[in-house]
Amino acid sequence: MANEANNFQELISHCKEYGYIFQSSEIYDGLAAVYDYGQNGAQLKKNIRDQWWKSMTQLHDNIVGIDAAIFMHPTTWKASGHVDHFSDPMIDNKDSNKRYRVDHLIEGFADEQLAVGNKQLAEDLLASMDALLAANDYAGIKNLIDNNKIKCTISKTCNWTEVREFNLMFSTQIGSITEDSDTIYLRPETAQGIFVNFLNVQKTGRMKIPFGIAQTGKAFRNEIVARQFIFRMREFEQMEMQFFVRPGTQMEWYNFWKAERKKWHESLGIPAEKIRYHDHVKLAHYADAALDIEFEFPFGWKELEGIHSRTDFDLKQHQEFSKKKIQYFDNDLNEDGKPFGNYTPYVVETSVGLDRLFLTIMSLAYTNETWTKEDGTQDSRVVLKIPAKIAPTKLAILPLLKKDGLPEIARELMNDCKPSFHCFYEEKDAIGKRYRRMDAIGTPFCVTIDHQTKEDNTVTIRYRDTMIQERISLSDVKRLVLEKIV
Ligand code: GAP
């Protein structure tokens, strides 16, 4: 565990050093739980998002994508239940004034117990917590914290307030202060933008049930305990898909998407043994079944994606609050040979955090390698083994020298390849140093142009993961890279 924690700290430093992730407004000492993606991070994030978008909207012919606004009419959040229910039970430490989400506080304590070998205590504690939260028994939660003498990480005391609920939505004003202004919310999930557009999309796209609407975009939550780097942020990105189905078929589709989404994560190179399902004990106000797809992060098993059977809750609520009929006419025939008729569709949702998936990919990719060379000395490197199809830069083009016509050949290769994929050109420093830099940003292929290239039109291609080098024809470079990045 200590080793994993060290590795995690190294990964965070690496993300900064190689242009993946910076603390937001760092020159002003940063803003807690808000991060910026640098030149490599933004590209990796886009590549992951593109994979998701393609898998949803291109590979499924009954799913379409939209891009709804972040600001929505405030009644949306009343209808969805977020104004009244989107809160977490919190507890404050009276000495440090630090506020904790109770589940995070207890989970943190359970992790500490696990680390010192108290597995049974940790498991019992989490089981009791799940049962108490499912029963909304906040007095019981307070007793659990008191009885286990769980301490504040800052004051190191057990001087706690009662457990209370706090809403997680950020609010702001729309309109000028001097005129009438209204409180609106920054969306805490992208899903509601899909629900309010259900009829628009269904009618204009002539969509037939079952069908899905997909969306990626920013969401905002005033997370109280925001730690573990980009795992829990106040501003983050979701990739959500609402799948509209005939009532009564929701469990069939829930099981379909449960399997489908796990397969998709595996297609991104996440090993099957690093992913597991976790069924929810306490269901959200809108769900009749829910589970998390968890990944084994460097700090333990945590939620990566949620699959929720949301019933007809959201569409019915929007129908009631907007006073507009939101129904679907199903003219397929039932067993009696009659059309199914009008109904409010049921919804199965898949919702994955793009930033969490980014962290998943990075924690799997980050590798610290040491080996013994032929002469008996040790060598080492830090390499990001990001799958080639999502790596920010696919190919580094490296003329061995800055002279003798080598840069010209390299530039020509660059011009040929760059319309098809991201390339990086570098002629400075020794070749070994340049390879190490490409390893550190995760570039899967490097091509070196040397004097032999001038004689026989061949180049050296070096593979990042194996460090194997081979001689191939200059004219094969583009095709080879294209084959490996699909
Ligand atoms: N529409 C359903 C929904 O929003 P959720 O389980 O609250 O469900 C879905 O969130 C996903 O969004 C999570 O599985 C997680 O990957 C991501 N997510 C939620 N809160 C987050 C946060 N504060 N920071 C980063 N990602 C977050």
Molecular structure report:
- With 486 residues, the protein is α+β, with helices and mostly antiparallel strands.
- It folds into three domains: 2-71 and 169-361, Bira Bifunctional Protein, Domain 2 (BirA Bifunctional Protein, domain 2, 2-Layer Sandwich); 87-167, 2-Layer Sandwich (Herpes Virus-1), CATH 3.30.40.230; 393-485, Anticodon-binding domain (Rossmann fold).
- It contains 16 helices and 23 strands.
- The protein has helices at residues 2-17, 39-58, 75-79, 82-85, 102-115, 119-134, 138-147, 191-195, 198-204, 250-267, 313-322, 354-365, 406-417, 431-441, 451-456, 477-484, and strands at 21-23, 35-37, 63-65, 87-92, 99-101, 164-167, 171-174, 182-185, 211-220, 235-245, 275-279, 289-297, 300-311, 328-333, 339-343, 346-353, 366-372, 378-384, 395-399, 423-425, 445-449, 458-463, 469-473.
- Helix 2 packs across helix 12 (354-365), helix 5 (102-115) packs antiparallel against helix 6 and helix 6 (119-134) runs antiparallel to helix 7 (138-147).
- The protein starts with a helix and ends with a helix.
- The mean pLDDT is 94.
- Bound molecules: glycyl-adenosine-5'-phosphate.
- Glycyl-adenosine-5'-phosphate binds at residues 189, 191, 221, 223, 232-233, 236, 238, 240, 303-306, 349, 351-353, 355-356.
